[in-house]
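Thread: "does anyone have the structure for this chain?"

Original post by V.I.:
We have the sequence but no experimental structure in hand. Need at least a predicted one for the grant figures.
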Amino acid sequence: MDPDALRAAVDRCPDTAAVLPVHIGGIVSPALDAVLTYCRERGIPVVEDAAHAFGATLGGRPAGSFGRFGAFSFFPTKVAVSGEGGLLSAALPDDAEQVRRWRDHGKSAQGSTLHDRPGGNWRLSELHAALGTVDLERFARTLAVRRELAARYDVLLADVPGLRPHAVPDGSDSNFYKYLAHLDPDGPLDRTLLKKRLRERHGVSLAGEVYDHLLCDHPYFADGHQPASSEGPFERARRFVRHHIALPLYPSLTEAEQIRVVTALRSELS
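Reply from O.Q.:
Generated one for you, tokens below.
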């Protein structure tokens, strides 16, 4: 989130209820500090969308510990999994208690049959919780392996033309939910054709993009207008959406498989 763009947006919308920075691809941006300072000055709560970022840090502080709330996903594609569901962090004990009530049909207290607010059935099932607990016990090793694999990709990709690994900012330690790289906009292949050739010629499938559409371009948010597939505001975001790729990265990936991925990329981009 660009702090300057945020200031302009809040000026246009002075009744802003909350600001939701997204830790995209498992990276907590150093720009978050300026966002937090501005929101403190304006009295606007910050809710971290940390769905990608479990285990990621900024300045040694974990994702989800900066805002009033932090929301994580344990969906099967994430770095820590429970099959479904997630985790919510809260800076204030009273906020955590309110969330416990909202998630359990708006009950006034655990085990109570009185309801003092609207709520929902947002409780993690015992089965999912058991799965998630086991996965969390081994998460430190999972995180270390993902970082080792990412470091190897950094080395292997150094001489691949038309491809630039996404630089993790200083002070930020990614969990490498995705290993991101950027295609040269003037390169020989666009992303769709590159993915097709890698799959058909080399048996290599890239991971799905972090996002392939901006939020404002989804029909639900288009405000009665046709969504803009490639033009419109947020130029930098659109450039990212159009040109990034995500390389295969998971704890059981071998060095030989990483070499095969990079060899295929070099073959198609040279």
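V.I.: this helps a lot. The beta strands are 47-49, 57-58, 61-62, 69-73, 86-90, 163-165, 172-173, 179-183, 244-247.
O.Q.: and The radius of gyration is 21 Å.
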